Amino acid sequence: xxxxxxIINPCAGTKQxxxxxxxxxxxxxxxGYETVVATTEKRGDGTTLAKEKAAEFDLLVxxxxxxTFNEVAAGVLESGKQIPIGYIPAGSTNxxxxxxxxxxxxLQAARDIVEGEPRKxxxxxxxxxxxxxxxxxxxxxxxSYEAPQSVKNALGHLAYILEGxxxxxxxxxxxxxxxxxxxxxxxxxxxxxxxxxxxxxGILTLSDDLVDMDDGMFxxxxxxxxxxxxxxxxxxxxxxxxxxxxxxxxFFSSSRLEVTADPEMSWTLDGEYQEGNDRIVIxxxxxxxxxxxxxxx
Length: 297
What we know:
Layout: E1 2-8, H1 16-19, H2 21-30, E2 33-39, H3 45-53, E3 59-64, H4 66-79, E4 85-89, H5 95-99, H6 106-115, E5 117-126, E6 129-131, E7 134-138, H7 143-146, H8 149-155, H9 157-167, E8 174-180, E9 183-195, E10 199-200, E11 204-205, E12 218-224, H10 229-240, E13 249-254, E14 256-261, E15 267-269, E16 272-274, E17 279-293
Parallel strand pairs: 1-2, 1-3, 3-4
Antiparallel strand pairs: 5-6, 5-17, 7-9, 7-15, 8-9, 8-14, 9-12, 10-11, 12-13, 14-17, 15-16
C-alpha cells in the first residue's frame, strides 16, 4: 500500500481545512493510501517533519499557506529524497498556489492530488535558505510577516494591504547592486522582487506569458525610487498596465544574482522575514522539486 504524510498548519488562513480533515483523509484512503497526519506547532516544524519522514512515504501533502509549503519543500530538499509533494492551499493569499492554478477548494485540491501528475518546478536559494516563489525587499514587504495572524485569518488578502498602508510614512529607498549573467544593475530602489510566480504579495501580477516556473530562471522586477509625484504616478500606471519597458522599472530574467546591499535591509522570502546581509547570492535550482498538479484536460 502507498503511504502519504499530510503535514497541516492548523492556524493557516481561516482554518477551513481543519473542518474538512476527515473528508480529506477519506479521499486519500479511497485512492489506496495509508494516510498519516502531522500538525505543525511553530515555525520550522514543516521542514523538520518533511526532512525526517520523507524516506518513509511515497507522497507528502502540505496543507497551509505559502510559508508552510516553503517549509515542506525545504525539508524534502534537505532530505535528499525525490518524493513528490501535493499542496492544498489554505493560507491567506496563496500566491504560489494561484500561479499554479491549484484549486482554492480544499476537497477539490485533495482530489486533484490523487488524480494529478508530477510537475518539476524550480526552487530558489538565498544564501543557503530555500524559497519557493519570491525573495523581495522594499515597500510593503514587511506587511506579509508583520500583519498579525489573527488579522490575516479574519481579513485575508485585505490584511496585507492594510498593513502595507501603515508602512507608507516610513518608506525609504534601498540602495543596492545586483550582478547577473546579463549585466550589473544598481541604484536606489523602492521595491524589488526576484520571483518565480505570476503573483507577488497578491498585489503585483505578471502575465502567464512572462513566467515559466521550470525554465531555470527568475523574473526580476526592480522599481526605482521616484524623485517626484509625477514619477510615482507613472510607476503606479506602469504596474497597473503591466508596462515593464519603463524608465523607472527594470524587468529581466536571471538564474543567479549576487547582491551587495545594506546588511540592515530586511528581505521577505515567501512571506516570511529574512535577515539582510551585505553579500547575498540568490540561485535558481532548476527542476528541484516535483509538485503534483491537476492533469490538463
